[in-house]
Structure formats: structure tokens, C-alpha cells
Amino acid sequence: MFKKILIANRGEIACRVIKTARKMGIATVAVYSDADRDAVHVEMADEAVHIGSSPAAQSYLQPEKIIAACKETGVKAVHPGYGFLSERASFCEALEKEGIVFIGPKPKAIRAMGDKIESKKFASRAKVSTVPGWLGVIENADHAERIAGEIGYPVMIKASAGGGGKGMRIAWSKTEVRDGFERARSEAKSSFGDDRVFIEKFVVDPRHIEIQVLADAHGNALYLGERECSIQRRNQKVVEEAPSPFLDAKTRKAMGEQAVALAKAVDYQSAGTVEFIVDRDKNFYFLEMNTRLQVEHPVTELVTGIDLVEQMIRIAAGEKLGIRQSDVKLNGWAVESRLYAEDPYRNFLPSIGRLTRYRPPQEGTFGDIVIRNDTGVTEGSEISMFYDPMVAKLCTWAPTRLEAIDAMSVALDSFVVDGIEHNIPFLAALMQHPRWREGRLSTGFIAEEYPDGFAPVEPDSGEKAVFAAIATAIELLRRDRLDRLSGRLAPHSGHLKRDWVVKIGTDYLAAGIVDGMVSIPMEIDLSIDGGKPLTVASDWRPGDAIWHGTVGGSRIAAQVRPVPNGLRIAWKGMSVTAQAMLPRTAELERLMPERLPPDRSRMLLCPMPGLVVSIAVAEGQEVKAGETLAVVEAMKMENVLRAERDLIVAKLNAKPGDSLAVDAVIMEFA
Q1: Residue of 12, 200, 275, 288 marked active site
Q2: Cα–Cα distance list, 504 to 113, 425, 479, 546, 594 (Å)
Q3: Domain extents for the chain?
Q4: Does domain 4-103 match CATH 3.40.50.20?
Q5: What pTM was estimated for this model as a whole?
Q6: Is 228 a catalytic site residue?
């Protein structure tokens, strides 16, 4: 077994590998760029080596710097994590020349499966069912249009060397093929240095289901069940689960055996994932094989009890698999939510900045529930523009699917992140979505259910009552605390007031105390708008970021943040401003004028921090609704900004190459 390994990666996956290595008694070496000098993975490792400036192309994507770090620290094995150099055969070969073990598959398997075009040809020869498509070289947009017409719309345009949803477009018409072809090629070249793309038939209502495989150097191979990854946005996975709510035992076995056959055919040696597209009739088609550890591997670990990183290390060290196919049992259900630094209210555009507050839910086993959070950041960490915007992977396990989903809902409500925009409100709302809870999924779920983007979820009357009850309970404690301060001329509130009014948004709800007294822990009965009394119980203390308790017998975890004259309360993807006050104060508050935001309807604002790739218009030009105005790149994704209506460009305030902050004015309209 190795005495020391180097992790050629960063962030949460580097931390994840370090945890297993530490458990196995293996020392670790981290590498880091300028931007990651104070990163968590650097602090966790036994040793750390600086390898370059912040851009990945000048640090984490430099094989010679990784090898130099190995020599400097005496390391004989490298774990690549995922992304960066994890699927680059030349890196594996360079390590082998230096006598350093690559903790992953051999170069032959990486080459055969790592290229999407070649892997489909290989799978076809191995009699694995594949989606109809064109795997040859596509010369230009005209050629792409002809191929798409022959295959039949819709089609998928994908980067050959791609991953993570980059260089990928769905086209439903000739026009979309031409535009998608150019965008996919541009993104592919920018992200992977390889502008080759291929085209295949797009399966309508597809489900993305993948099989986890393990194979050693002694001819043993097995599969560890499946993961469903159908909740995707822009072809980027957002929520995953294991097992799939769609598969039956027969289909699972067929997919697993086919995945193992493919792994054996390519002489695979490590952990790997065979991805399939599954249609509504449970027909499955080979999509690709990822010759590395998957981002979503924790859900497989939670339902099988098998540490995949440990297996990778043992296989790389030459050991035989210590488990057989008959040993693999799927126990319970696991769900993973990817927490991204992105603004769900701005069409999920990237966000960067410092984590001024980062308080994930407590990890561990709580009765029948397991909570796990794989992360590479801590409070004070910087979310950089140079790398992927994923902040953490929150996972829950429970005996059943709905129990795991409900546990995830509470865990998300308990996850406090400030300083950046993030997708927790969307994830929390998703956990309540009927279609998700019923398991009626497809890769088009988000686009279908949120066609106009994600908007703030409006609470119904029952949910407003919960918000009002929480706000009233918090206000009672606040006033009681003021009364106990020494040196006051007179009590702030005097005896306990029974009648209150809570403003939720623009609504005013009456809140009456029926029974109970102010204390910590608190238990009082409240009637909201004359309704049946609700028992409110909590041990919340002023200053706590999470209000844990029950309202009317329902378990609640809500985030509370002070705002002028009230609170911002977030729960289940909903967020409201609540102000609890005495009736006379409410009368006067109703008379206060409303301050309106400035009119920016005649401006094109930069929706996220990014780099201006191109400006498609000139001053004085008339443009029609839907036409491209500018292209802005953020975190290696090109975002096309289009005109929402017919207009005339009055002034350009930015040019290609400019680096802009969020809401910077790109252009103004007449």
C-alpha cells in the first residue's frame, strides 16, 4: 500500500480524497494555485506544494508541475479527483514514465472511453446499444445542418472532449443547429482546447441513469447499482439520487451487466461510470463512460456502504477486489443536492465573492437519517471566478425515498450561506415539487417546470401563518430581552401583550396569544387571523441563524436574518420579510410611503460577474426582439444576452475584453 499520495485537484474532491487517505493511514500532499493559497484542502493535507497562478491552465492543468511536486515530496501515487487532468491519458503516461502510479484507469481505457466520439464507436463494436447519430468529423455549420436533417430533429450537439455541460446544445430546427454548432465549438475550444463536436438524436423525455462500476487488474469487475441524475440545468447535474425511482430489477440488472461487459472489454481498472439515456419505455442507450470518480459518487457510497475512493486506491496498489457482485446490496435511499454559487433568480447565473457566513447542517447519523456534506470551503473562503462554482454537495440518506427527500428539505433549510448568491432557495423549493417527489423525472424537468426561470415561491395562507408564528415568537423574545436590560428608564413592553399584527410582504395578519409565556425554551399557543390556535415550540435564542422548532406539530427549520424593522425568514424555498408589531404600530405603518426602485428598463445589465466576449450591435442600430446583443463569459460558460423587445441602441458602455461586475451597464437603449 502507498505511504503517501498526492491529490492533483482542489476543493471538495481534494478534501474528500484526503479524508479516505487519512482513514487508511496514508499521508497526503495537496497542490494549490495562488487563488487557493488559503483553501481548506491545503490546510487538511499533511504537505502542500504551490504550482502556479490562479487560472487552471497555469496551475492544475500543468502535468509537469504536478510531477515536479511528486518528486519534491517523494510521492509514488497520484489521485486526480475529477475534472482537470483526471481523464487525460498523456498525464497518466507521464506519471508512469516517472514511476508514479496513477490512481485511476490505464491510458488505453482513458483514450478509448474518454473521447465521446471514439467511445461510442467502441461501444457499438462491443454491441452496446447506442443512440443514433453522426460520429465523424463535422466540417462546418452547413455540414452540421445536413447531418441533423438526416438524423431527424431534435438533435444534440456535443463537444467530443467535453464534460460538465460545456460545449453542449439541443437544436430543434435548422437555425438552432447553426447557432448551436458555433457556440458548442467555441465553448469546447475554450474549455478543453478541442473544438470537435458530434451530433446525435435527442431522446424525448429522457432520463439520465448511470451505473457505477469497479474493476481491478486481475479481471474482476462488478457494478454497484445505479444513480439517477435527471435533474439537470443546462445539461449540468443539480440533484442526484440512488437508486433510481424508475428502474425495475430486470432493467437494473441488464444495464449493470452491460456496463461491466464494456468495462471488461476496455480492460478497465478502477472506479468508473457508464452513463445511459433511458426512454419512457425503459429502453437504454449508451451515452458515455466517465473514466474517473463522479461528482455524485457519495449517493452510491451511502446506499452500498462501499468507499469508492478507498477501492480506487486499493486497485491502483494492485489489490484484488475484496467484494463480489453478490455482496452488493442497495440499502435505503440517498439524495445529493449540489450547492452552486449562482443566482437562481437571475436564471442561475454565476456569483463570486467571499463567504461571510458558512454554516452547513451538522453531519452524522440522527436516528434513521444520515447527513453528509462534502465541501472544500469554510467561512471566509473566496468563491473564485477561476473555477467551477460548486460550493458543496449535501447528501441525505434514509430508509425510503420520501424520508430522504424530507431530510434533505430540513438540511437545506438549515444550511446558512451569506456573502454570495446561491441556489439553496431553488433546491429547497425543488424538494417540495410534486413531480420530483413522485419520481416523474426527465432531463428536461427544470426547463419544463420553470420555463421562465425560477421565481420566488409565494407562500399560501397556511405557510403565511407559519411565518407569522415564527416572527411573533421571535419578537416576544426580543422585547423580553430588552426589558431585562439594566439601566433602562422604564420597561420596553411592560406586561405581556396578547394582540399583535404581523406584516408578511404586503399582507397584515392578526396574531393573538392564546396561552403560554415568554421563555427559553418557548411554548405558546398562537391564533393567526382568528384561526385555530397553533402550538409554537422552540429553543431558539436571539442571534441563532436557524429557528428550529415546531409550529402546529410540524417540524420547522427556518433561516432568520435581521433586516430594518423586521426579519427575513427563509423556509422551503420561500423567503419573506416579516415584521411583528403592536396593532397601533401597524396602523401607522400602513401609512408609510413605498419607495420604488430606479427604472433600468432601458439598460442592458451584466447579469453576473464576467468577461465580455463580444458586442453584436452598434450605437444607433435597430434590433428586434430575440436578437443577440452581447456574449458574456463566466466560469467558462458563454452566456448570450438577447433583446427582450424591439429597440434602438443609444450607447455602448462596454467592449470585448472588459471584465464587468454584476449589474454593470453594458449598453443603453433609446
Answers
A1: 288
A2: 55, 18, 20, 19, 15
A3: 4-103, 105-130+205-331, 132-201, 332-454, 461-590, 603-669
A4: yes
A5: 0.84
A6: no
